[in-house]
Amino acid sequence: MDSESIGVAGKYGGWAGQILWVDLSRQKVVPKPLDEELALNYLGGTGFAARWLFDLVGPEVDPFSPDNVFILATGVLTGTIFPQASRHIVAAKSPLTDVYGEAHAAGHFGAELKFAGFDAVVVTGRSDKPVYIYIEDGKAEIKDASHLWGRTTYEAEEIIKEEIGDRQVKAALIGQAGENLVRFAGVFNDHGRAAARAGIGAVMGSKRLKAIAARGYRPIKVARPDEFYETMIEYGKRMLAHPFTPDRVKYGTNSLVELMQAIGRLPAYNHREGVFDEWEKISGERVTREYLLKPKADFACYQRCGRFVRVPSGKYAMVGKGPEYEGLDALGANVGNSDLEALIYANHLCNLYGMDVISAGGVIAWAMECWENGLLTKEDTGGLELEWGDPELIVQLIEMIALRKGFGDLLAEGVYRAAKKIGRGTEKYAMHVKKMEIAAQDGRAQKSMGLAHATSNRGADHLYAFPVLDEVGFEKDIVERFGEQYLPEMTDRLNPKYKGIMVAELEDFGAVVEAVGVCKYGTIIPPVFFYPDLAEALTLVTGKKYTEADLRLIGARIVNLQRLFNVREGLTRKDDTLPGRFTKEPMPRGPAKGQVVELDQMLDEYYQYRNWDVKTGIPRKSLLSELGLEKEAEELERRGIRIPP
Hints:
Layout: H1 7-11, E1 18-23, E2 28-33, H2 36-42, H3 45-56, E3 70-74, E4 88-93, E5 100-105, H4 109-115, E6 120-124, E7 131-136, E8 139-144, H5 153-164, E9 170-173, H6 176-179, E10 187-189, E11 193-195, H7 200-206, E12 209-215, H8 225-241, H9 245-251, H10 256-263, H11 284-290, E13 292-296, E14 306-311, E15 318-321, H12 325-330, H13 340-353, H14 357-372, H15 378-381, H16 391-402, H17 407-411, H18 414-422, E16 432-433, E17 436-437, H19 447-455, H20 475-482, H21 499-516, H22 531-542, H23 548-568, H24 580-583, H25 599-610, H26 621-626, H27 630-638
Parallel strand pairs: 1-6, 7-12
Antiparallel strand pairs: 1-2, 3-4, 3-6, 4-5, 7-8, 9-10, 9-12, 10-11, 13-14, 14-15, 16-17
């Protein structure tokens, strides 16, 4: 079927116009036209995922059952020349959190899927044997993957390319962690690009789906190509002229080690502290100086934040995708480790095995603090001594988790389940929100980030709202995006006032960014492009007039639909919380010394601004009506959930 002649793709630019529906239980692939109403009201990416998960996956569905749905979706701008239009998302009911699950990745796979004629792939059922899906030029088939099972992400991707006979094939796939149902396994592409959070790779593993591979030759239709080209040239110049860009090109996200240490927001020793005395040994400057081979760019990328690194010799010798800031903290400061070569190698193993580095480091840090406090013994660990900063132990534990060997089998369940199983007070040291491990930020040093972790619909998440404008005081950009009336409090990272407004606004904007398929670097930080720019690009690409008001409505619709999914699963205000470490234990030292997260104050402001009920955190009917979500509210009420008026 020619996507250029049907439905959405025949009427608008941007979308490929087809969705691939795959039933692995019946070994069927069925291309279907993209629904026009879905495209216009949800755009793509996270918007499609929110819609399909709410419609197809209810609270009775276990994340590892064949009834769970795996979704891989691109955005309407993915594959165009909009700066950093490289993104795709994967989604399912999360086996880590048991609620709405989603992860995002860059690279070249999303663009290739669009070139191959599809906006998304939706997978149901479970295969009797390992398989992968191959998509080429509007067609798809299910292929045997028995020979790929047990292979790393790097190995499997290379074998697929050799098997198909085309080095330009792109693949999104799982490693052994996904096969072994590690609850924080991710979906990896382009040798180290990771849709890592929420355990979506384990859902692929439960379906015995090793990979989705794509090769395409179809152009993406642009409604007004000449205007779009000229506009994107100007957008590119704006990106390159921003003072934030040169350091991002030079250091990637790794320069954040220095910045976070300076503001007291570099988590160390399982988030106990916000500074790390040996930070210089794991700094972005050192990675660049001693180990960087070259920056690694994604499709249409100007900032090149990927790091291609090499450890030349020794037991940690490797060549491949290097750690970014989250990896440097998760396997460095947060576990007390300053051995950079071991850190790089442990991060590399996470890429090979297909595992979220944030959760892996988080669960290891939990175990180390429990050991320090005598709550875990050699009887629990199989004889291992879990001392802070032991580089060989960290590397060993990564392999044990991925393969579910010994003590690693417990850690593979994530901190929430591991602590629940052990008991004995270990729950106190489980740093998670909604069962997902907290990333390399500390809300005590930046109050907006503490709130963002608590309210994110997929669990502890720094990227859902990505509230970094108050990180070092982007006052000019805060005024432009929010207004002068919020100064000076909104720019002060240690002041909780107005942070509810900032987080709510950025969650909605972030949803639009993930729906159109571009990167948050450039849209949120550095703050180069905002709603008017995305609206202009969408208008030129699709041919449909989009305004800032349209996009604000779409963003709010997506966030509220995700929230309704979680409300249907039983979540309320009580789940928008943080570990006591952040709300009750003042930061012990550093620039944020003495600070705690004033969560209740910020939640009240956040709920009021969103028009959600302050007591329950449930969206109000009046709001849902404005967003076109009346039927969803009615469904929840039929299930006995009261929706406030």
